[in-house]
Design brief:
The protein has 353 residues and is α+β, with helices and mostly antiparallel strands. The protein has twelve helices and 13 strands.
């Protein structure tokens, strides 16, 4: 092995070890902030977890299972530690170098055939495109914008937690938008959501996060949860007071909600009694996610934010190909990989061979 390769290998090993340390620090911080009295795992629980994951060649840290066992009351080894997913499982399934392009909101309706929020203008690297992907001048873009009285503006790349998402009304000035967003953003018509989901929080468009996996020529739903926005906020993933509610495999709300710090609630601020209720249009939502995933085979995992419009049609708001919110997904009540854990792990080993 030459010196350059030796340095590269050593650097990679150091970076992975550093990431593991950061994840370990993070889970301890989450436990301290949400519930420092979480019970420790028993030796038999640790042995069960170790036996399960070592069967796939993975040495998993126990602290994440302590967190999810304590929060959900479910004691199943299929819960996946966040560093195991992010550092070992996801890289084996997803082409990380393509994620930035394929998750660009400006191109979502070009990559998939499902219904998306209706585009008005796209700004790609400082240049404007119309809804049909035709390059246009700034003057033409303003003329198009003049035809609307209400739009949503959002950054199109490298976004998270509702960052920069705004609902604009009235006289719309493109120069003001350009000054704030600079480049790489999309302007869309707002989606009028179905009343069944508006009851979770009227001010925000409340979406369902659907986590899917592509195995050979078929896609499957692994797990899902609902995001209910903070009162007064437009984006459902903005603010510390937003709520997440898990969904069972047969499409019913679970018994509790969690906030971003994993505190547990039996009620959400709007007062909607969700526990055990059927999630409206759940089959249609899952079917839309599965069809969409088949359009992007560079990625074995995809994480979709989907709302339901006033007419009852699923609308894909965005495709998440980097950060799947593994902690939230599992704290809401089910292992992230769901009943496909064994298939996924065997698929990875089969394709690594």
């Amino acid at each position: 092995m030459n010196l350059k390769k030796t340095v590269r290998c050593a650097t990679k090993k150091y970076q992975e070890q550093r990431k593991k340390q950061l994840y370990f620090s993070r889970v301890n911080q989450v436990i301290r902030s949400s519930d420092p009295q979480l019970p420790d795992l028993s030796e038999s629980e640790k042995n069960e977890i170790k036996t399960f994951w070592s069967g796939y060649g993975i040495d998993t840290p126990y602290q994440w299972h302590r967190l999810f066992y304590g929060k959900t009351g479910m004691k199943v080894p299929e819960f996946v530690a966040v560093p195991v997913f992010n550092l070992q499982i996801r890289p084996a399934m997803n082409r990380a170098e393509f994620a930035g392009v394929w998750s660009d909101k400006c191109y979502l309706d070009k990559f998939i055939t499902e219904k998306t929020a209706e585009p008005v203008l796209r700004n790609v690297n400082g240049r404007f495109l119309d809804r049909d992907f035709q390059l246009i001048s700034t003057e033409k873009a303003q003329t198009i914008l003049d035809g609307h009285k209400e739009v949503v503006v959002k950054p199109s790349t490298f976004t998270h937690t509702g960052m920069g998402v705004k609902l604009l009304r009235g006289s719309l000035d493109l120069a003001t938008i350009m000054s704030e967003y600079k480049k790489n953003y999309i302007i869309q018509l707002p989606v009028k959501q179905h009343p069944c989901f508006a009851q979770l929080n009227e001010s925000s468009v409340n979406t369902i996060r659907v986590n899917t996996v592509l195995l050979d020529d078929e896609a499957y739903v692994m797990s899902s949860f609902v995001k209910a926005g903070k009162t007064g906020e437009f984006a459902d993933n903005a603010g510390e007071e937003r709520m997440f509610i898990g969904i069972t495999e047969d499409g019913h709300y679970r018994e509790y909600a969690v906030d971003p710090k994993l505190n547990i609630y039996q009620r959400i601020p709007c007062g909607f009694q969700f526990a055990g209720e059927e999630v409206p249009f759940y089959d249609e939502i899952c079917a839309a996610a599965v069809r969409a995933h088949k359009c992007i085979p560079h990625f074995g995992f995809a994480f979709w934010d989907i709302c339901v419009d006033a007419g009852g049609d699923p609308v894909i708001i965005e495709a998440n190909l980097r950060n799947p919110s593994v902690t939230i997904a599992q704290a809401t009540g089910s292992p992230f990989l769901g009943r496909y854990t064994d298939q996924i792990m065997n698929y990875i080993h089969r394709h690594e061979a």
